[in-house]
Design goal:
Helices cover 29% and strands 23% of the residues. The protein has six helices and nine strands, in the order E-H-E-H-E-E-H-E-H-E-H-E-E-H-E. It binds zinc ion (ZN) (2 copies).
Length: 230
């Protein structure tokens, strides 16, 4: 099951030009099985997209992207209308754990809003010991930043996910997460990520993502991630 786990829409992210209705149609046409809408600090856009998806028979999972002192965090399974900007990581973790959710550092090695290059071993250990996965393929990152993130995930034995971080429709699906099994609920999304039953891919590695015409189909690579996009 192919899921783009990181998409912004114009409903709650002023930086995005994606209309949620177009998102649902485009994602279905290009061969994705689901998308996660993860607006900055707000849940409304995800709610709107999920309702549209329900009407059109396309899965949209709700998430949010919350800025903390350790950079941006993708959060699933924790529902509140709004989150503070630069939320304390320890407070966010407390809420995620009591809700039974998942927390994933977004684009952890990107130089702006990233965290890893600024942390010493002790802080990095604290952070990475408290998260459920790493977004090791982010569509807005350089290949080098993604490679660094993948090395961190491997070093700490963390599950790896990929998301487009799309702010334009044509960016949807440029990085995705392939889940081992089909599921329909946000609870299962959290469960599958936490269990690591998923792998990240660039779109061009997946021939099934050619249908919308935005990506050239290519032969599937031998492994998840780590392949430089052309
Ligand atoms: Zn971000
Ligand atoms: Zn984002």
């Amino acid at each position: 099951m192919l899921v783009d786990i990181h998409v912004h829409t114009m409903v709650s992210s002023p930086c995005s030009q994606i209309d949620p209705l177009n998102l649902v149609d485009y994602a279905a046409r290009m061969g994705l099985d689901a998308v996660c809408v993860t607006e900055h600090e707000e849940m409304e856009g995800a709610e709107v997209a999920r309702d549209l998806g329900l009407r059109r028979g396309f899965r949209v999972f709700r998430g949010v992207e919350v800025y903390t002192e350790f950079g941006d965090m993708l959060v699933f399974g924790l529902y509140r209308p709004r989150f503070p900007w630069k939320m304390e990581f320890s407070e966010l973790i407390r809420e995620v754990r009591s809700a039974g959710g998942a927390i994933i550092p977004a684009h952890p090695c990107r130089s702006d809003r990233g965290f890893f290059e600024r942390l010493g071993d002790e802080k990095a250990g604290y952070l990475l010991g408290n998260v459920d996965a790493l977004e090791v393929l982010n569509g807005g990152n350089t290949p080098e930043a993604n490679r660094l993130a993948m090395a961190v995930a491997e070093k700490y034995g963390l599950p790896q996910v990929g998301g487009s971080d799309a702010h334009l429709l044509v960016q949807v699906g440029r990085c995705v997460t392939l889940f081992e099994r089909e599921f329909d609920t946000e609870e299962e999304l959290v469960e599958e990520i936490r269990a690591g039953r998923c792998r990240p891919f660039y779109a061009h590695q997946l021939p099934e993502l050619g249908r919308a015409g935005a990506w050239r189909p290519a032969a599937r690579g031998s492994g998840g991630g780590g392949v430089v996009p052309d």
